[in-house]
Amino acid sequence: MAETQRAAVPHEALADAEQVVGRGPGSKVFHLEEVPELVSVHDGRRKRVLLNHTNTGSSLLVDVVTVAPGSASPVHLHRGTEHFFLVLAGRGRIRIGDAEFPLRAGSVVWVAEGDIHQLLADPDSELTFLEYFSQGRHETVFLGPACTWRG
């Protein structure tokens, strides 16, 4: 499908995105490769929404994000949710406020509501992490260009 024909998903709509497996409430079992991939228009990050309101009926949002080598997420903060990351593979860094912390497989990060943060992949390593938001419907404030995803 051509890029211009792919559906755009604004960042704030991920909690209700249709690009999920198994719509509706109830238990789910599926494989990561079955989940449609979204690509950030802003920076080329890739995201697979695993669980959201569309496929669980619950308020959480869980996804897997991959940041290309040398790339970074926009600087941003979240209102109305806390979230955490579990690094699955690769190396990089996370900036929270004025502090920067190294990341590697097995790193766990808790980001409190309102904390300004940015994820960065090392120049020679893709960075892949599981991301969990306690409230899928929340406000993300970008301190630069807003993020939109293409499915």
As residue ranges, the low-confidence spans are 1-5
CATH superfamily: Jelly Rolls
User: Largest sheet, if any?
Assistant: 10 strands, antiparallel
Q: What percent of the residues sit in helical stretches (DSSP H or I)?
A: under 10%
Shape-level CATH architecture: Sandwich
Distance between the termini: 10 Å
> Secondary-structure element sequence?
EEEHEEEEEEEEE
Index terms:
single chain; mainly beta; Jelly Rolls; ten-stranded antiparallel sheet; 1 helix; 12 strands; globular
What report would you give on this structure?
The chain is an all-beta fold and 151 residues long. The protein has one domain: Jelly Rolls. Helices cover 3% and strands 44% of the residues. It is built from one helix and twelve strands; from the N terminus they run E-E-E-H-E-E-E-E-E-E-E-E-E. The strands form two sheets. Strands 1, 2, 3, 4, 6, 7, 8, 9, 10 and 12 form a ten-stranded antiparallel β-sheet that branches. The protein has a two-stranded antiparallel sheet with strand order 5-11. A hairpin with a 5-residue loop joins strand 2 (38-40) and strand 3. The radius of gyration is 15 Å and the shape is globular. 25% of the residues are buried. Residues 1-5 have low confidence and may be disordered.
